Amino acid sequence: MAAGQQYQLKRTVVLVGMMGSGKTAIGRALAAALDVPFMDSDAAIEEAAAASIAEIFARDGEKFFRKREAEVLRRLLSGPPGIVSTGGGAFLAEANRDAIAQMGVAVWLDADLEILWERVRHKDTRPLLRTADPKATLTGIFEERAPIYALAGLRIDVKETASIEQTTLSVLRRLASRPDILETK
């Protein structure tokens, strides 16, 4: 991808994957590179609820949260093409996967378990990891979710040594290989 390359995004790109895989950081960088809106589904949920994800989980439970998440995701997909970063569990729901496939494209940021653990172990903003053994919990979530994330339309291997810019370039190259998603001018 050449510097100053011009692009036209034809479908919304929805970044999916585990907590800590880089969905928000890569999403922001990708949106900036493509000059399209960046939307974070968790931030949109927090804004609508005037509460953090952790507070919503504690107050209303995961089932309530997942319902709001599906509503927000559909709303974000209904707008002009952009980049959407989802929460780690959003892609698990078949209805969400169907909506993404119909109105956009899912890109799985596939990071291995050790990369994920290094990125999330010092954060207290992950309600699902508030357990006696957070690494074991993360491992269980990883093993359960990876086969579902593999259903995404596109997959990017997240390398431990790759910078945000390098990973974003990998995503751009992958998207550019699909003219139905990203047209280069």
How would you describe this protein?
- The protein is an alpha/beta fold and 185 residues long.
- It is built from seven helices and seven strands.
- The radius of gyration is 16 Å and the shape is globular.
- The termini are close together.
- The model has no long low-confidence stretch (mean pLDDT 89).
Please specify the SSE layout and strand pairing.
Layout (H helix, E strand, L loop, with lengths): L6 E3 L2 E5 L6 H12 L3 E3 H9 L3 H26 L4 E3 L8 H10 E7 L2 H8 L13 H16 L4 E4 L6 H13 L5 E3 L1
Parallel strand pairs: 2-4, 2-5, 3-4, 5-6
Antiparallel strand pairs: 1-7
Helix pairs in contact: 1-7, 2-3, 3-4
User: Which stretches of 5+ consecutive residues score pLDDT under 50?
Assistant: none
- Please tell me what the overall shape is: globular
Distance between the termini: 11 Å
Specify the structural class: alpha/beta
Taken in chain order, the helices and strands follow as: EEHEHHEHEHHEHE
Assess the beta-strand content as a share of residues: 15-25%
Strand order of the largest sheet: 3-4-2-5-6
Can you summarize the main beta sheet?
5 strands, parallel
- The proportion of residues forming helix, as a percent range, comes to 40-55%
* Average pLDDT number: 89
Contiguous helical run count: 7
Rg (CA only): 16 Å
Based on DSSP secondary structure assignment, what is the total number of beta strands?
Answer: 7
